[in-house]
């Protein structure tokens, strides 16, 4: 297998991408972050070494980084502007305390229970940064079975605020847990363990969040729910989609929306109907949402830019499968040059999104 440095030398180098078209941030196992232009098929530039760091999420040019000392920060990979974030143990909660017991180890005490052996290796996160770079939302959690909380902060916050993911009332237990989540601006969408979708408004002053789901959360269940990998995504209008593919032979993707004809979604085996077009939009599944198609920028309508499912919640990890699938033509484009790199991760990104 060709090593990352060898591959870098074998591909043409150009100046950093500035066209605004979709690009790939690549994270080789031997460290660092490089930018790949899928149109030209070349490595454009090295974005930094980042020794000992983990990359949790991206938003436009910005990365959410957890360093070797378990400190979180946001960095613009082009300008190198860095925004430090509160420490992981800085949480405002009525019934929870997080304590650091080592550089990468933590314990969490909540409601009389103590969760030990929490490692920085299982911290996952989401990030949104405004185009101006002045506003941001950061969300993180320890990704372990039985998710009970996630924590978030915004620009100007001095600590994180917990969002509970379990209910004390037994009648609401079907809405417990977490299987996937999407952050779009200050709006958070959560797919629960039983695939019910909840929505939260994170705008407002420090510590504010509001469940805006409504009285009847809707489950996103296809006929193949247990057989295939799936993720949720959100359109520009705020509609939640289910994205599905077969991990054994990823030659197709299916997209679904809420079926308005389902009378009793709480007891239905499948609750969605397939859609065959994104209506002039394209999907960047790494970010979890659609963007308007733009011919000048090479953003083709009905395209799904994909690297892996289960990105925010890796209890069921999946291998990378970097590709672009077009719903209209049923065509799939892969990037064989990248097979020569020993990649730990890769993320599609779009400047400003």
From TrEMBL:
Coiled-coil zones: none
Name assigned to this protein: KIB1-4 beta-propeller domain-containing protein
SUPFAM superfamilies given in the database record: DPP6 N-terminal domain-like
Pfam family, one: Beta-prop_KIB1-4
Positions of the UniProt region annotated as Disordered: 1-25
Species classification: Eukaryota, Viridiplantae, Streptophyta, Embryophyta, Tracheophyta
Residue span, KIB1-4 beta-propeller domain: 45-326
InterPro entries hit by this protein: F-box_BR-signaling, KIB1-4_b-propeller
